[in-house]
Design goal:
Blueprint: H1 2-5, H2 8-57, E1 58-60, E2 66-68, E3 84-90, E4 95-97, E5 118-125, E6 128-137, E7 145-152, H3 153-204, H4 220-267, H5 271-301, E8 308-309, H6 310-325, E9 331-336, E10 341-342, H7 346-363, E11 367-375, E12 379-386, H8 416-426, E13 430-435, E14 441-450
Parallel strand pairs: 9-11
Antiparallel strand pairs: 1-2, 3-4, 3-7, 5-6, 6-7, 8-10, 10-14, 11-12, 12-14, 13-14
Helix pairs in contact: 2-3, 4-5, 5-8, 6-7, 7-8
Length: 452
């Protein structure tokens, strides 16, 4: 949940949704209340008009009986239980009502309102709560009259309910449209950041060396600064590699002179001194090669865009090893899943695999099997099997020592597997030895996987 709320996209969309819903909710409430006030006022005005019309039409006979000169103009006062009712009563007890009352008496509160005044009351009518307008009318020579004219509250509520439901549906559709527009706007507005993220991934996986600069003006300065940082970092790493190479040459030249002097001592008959000098020179040369390889890998490990495709790296190595060891009848077989990319410099991956494949070719009887495959979503495994004599388990760690060789008759300096372990470790990988199903030694390499 915390990761979700750290997203710009989530924050912007959530903020837009909250404001849209809040704004439309307030707008809907205000519109509903305004409509309620308007319709209620219109309803009451209509009742007032009917009351004025009824007051003009009512008459009193000499015997005190109430008469209506003609019926009201609104036909809704005619049907029974129509919801529209009127009644006129005199203080003398006479009364007359609308046909919609069907002989029922319209309840009106006591006492009579003062002459010339009106009041609004709610009473229980024949079909529910009634919204009643009551007024008093005085006529010359006649008792005081009161007129009650009303309509069911449910009629007003039905109008308001229908309006509110229509308003709700309309505002919901508007809200969905605005939320969709907000999501589209956020997606379109943040698209340059997504593009930059993809470009950074391309740099990290080695598919590009720098970020594109055809970006919006708000993002362009960031891309320019990142490109400058990448260039500065690469320049620093290039200098480090160059210095490592210069140091190697600077040390190897004196070593070559010392080795030459050892040969001169041996030619002069000083065999013991020559052997001592040669042995120490060989040890120094091993250490120089070993440390230079580590320094180069350590520098490249921090470089952006470090990536190697396993299949592309294996192809020339297998071809070279097949020519080198093919004369002994050793065959290299490869099973490599397509598109496997690991977070290793191509040159270092080539050196790692070259050392292992060369060792496998030296000890194999007839076949070396290479299998490269994905190991889960984040790792790649490269397995090298040979059908040679293999190694006892107690020797697995021994062969990774600098200068260690199990068979002095085999050519080499004992640096191969030591460099392999250090290079693999620098790239946060793993190397393991095990017994091979082919009868020889199995070497298992594991590296961090990068997406193609």
């Amino acid at each position: 949940m915390r990761d979700l709320w750290t997203s710009f996209r989530t924050r912007l969309i959530a903020g837009a949704v909250i404001w849209i819903i809040a704004g439309l909710a307030v707008s809907g409430f205000l519109l509903s209340e305004l409509f309620r006030a308007h319709v209620t006022q219109q309803f009451d005005d209509e009742l007032h008009g009917h009351a004025a019309e009824l007051a003009a039409l009512i008459g009193v006979e000499p015997d005190g009986e109430l008469i209506l000169h003609r019926r009201l103009s609104d036909p809704r006062f005619l049907p029974k239980d129509s919801g529209f009712y009127w009644r006129v009563e005199s203080e003398g007890g006479a009364g007359i009502g609308s046909p919609s009352l069907a002989g029922q008496r319209l309840p009106m509160p006591e006492p009579f309102p003062p002459p010339g005044t009106e009041r609004h009351v709610f009473v229980e009518g024949p079909s529910g709560q009634l919204r009643l307008v009551e007024r008093s009318v005085s006529m010359p020579g006649a008792p005081l009259l009161r007129i009650g004219i009303g309509a069911d509250q449910r009629l007003l509520d039905q109008v308001l309910t229908h309006f509110n439901w229509t308003l709700f549906l309309s505002l919901t559709i508007i809200a969905l449209g605005l939320v969709g527009a907000a999501i589209l706007q956020v997606w379109f507005g943040l698209r340059p950041l997504s593009r930059m993220r993809g470009a950074l991934a391309a740099v990290r996986t080695g598919r590009a060396s720098r970020l594109p600069e055809d970006l919006p003006s708000e993002v362009l300065p960031l891309a320019v600064d990142l490109n400058a940082l990448l260039e500065a970092n690469l320049e620093m790493l290039r200098r480090a590699r160059t210095q490592a190479g210069n140091l190697a040459h600077a040390l190897k030249t004196p070593l070559a002179i010392l080795v030459d002097e050892a040969e001169r001592l041996r030619a002069a008959g000083q065999t013991e001194a020559a052997d001592v000098v040669s042995l120490q020179c060989e040890r120094m040369r091993r250490q120089i090669d070993y440390q230079i390889a580590r320094a180069r890998a350590a520098a490249l490990k921090r470089a952006p865009g470090v990536a190697a495709e396993v299949g592309v790296t294996l192809e020339p190595l297998v071809s070279a090893m097949s020519r080198l060891h093919g004369r002994r009848g050793v065959t290299y077989k490869v099973q490599c899943a397509p598109g496997l990319i690991v977070a290793v410099d191509p040159q270092d991956l080539s050196e790692i695999l070259a050392n292992i494949l060369d060792n496998a070719g030296k000890w194999a009887k007839s076949v070396v099997q290479i299998t490269a495959r994905g190991a889960g979503e984040e790792r790649v495994e490269i397995v090298i099997d040979d059908d040679g004599a293999g190694l006892p388990p107690e020797s697995y760690e021994h062969v990774f020592g600098v200068g260690e060789r199990l068979d002095e008759r085999m050519p080499g300096h004992g640096l191969g597997l030591a460099i392999v372990r250090d290079l693999v470790g620098l790239y946060e990988g793993q190397v393991e030895l095990d017994a091979s199903p082919l009868g020889g030694l199995r070497v298992i390499l594991s590296f961090r996987k990068l997406e193609a």
